[in-house]
Amino acid sequence: MSSEIGTLFESFKKIDSSTYFIASTGVKTVGEIASIQSQRAALARENYRIETEKRLARLKAIEAENDRRDVALAELAQNKAFQSTAGYYDDGMSFLNINKQVENKMNKDVATIRLMGNAVDNKFTSMLFENTMKEKDLVFGGYTSVAIGLTNGMALYKYNKDGNKQPNIDFSKYIG
Fold this sequence. Notes:
This protein is mainly alpha-helical and 176 residues long. The chain is 86% helix and 0% strand. The protein has a single domain, classed as Helix Hairpins.
């Protein structure tokens, strides 16, 4: 095994630095593209979660509205039962006023429930919009970064392939 590793290292000695630069650039590019794709997948999962929460919030608002209507209808039924045993006329002003107040209160409560439901819906819609913008920014910025990395890597490859070498610095001069 150690002889195989030694042979492998010997073969690496024959590769010039320009080839290492281009290989490094390729590996970095693949990593950046994989990162972009994984971040896009994470945003897609988050968008799915937000859509699910949005639907659940809408359903809860509808249930709250229906519950409030049921309470009002039960109250109206109780008023009619009381009126029938008390001997009030169906069209008596006092009886009609009580029922009208119940209906007005119910309509006000239902409007408030709808308003709150719309506010929650708008919050989730805004979150989805922000994630869409994040994804566009991520894709543009990510692929721009990939292009810059490839350009720099190719420039370094050509620079070193043409025989230009980075100067060696003797650190012993600077370290006491």
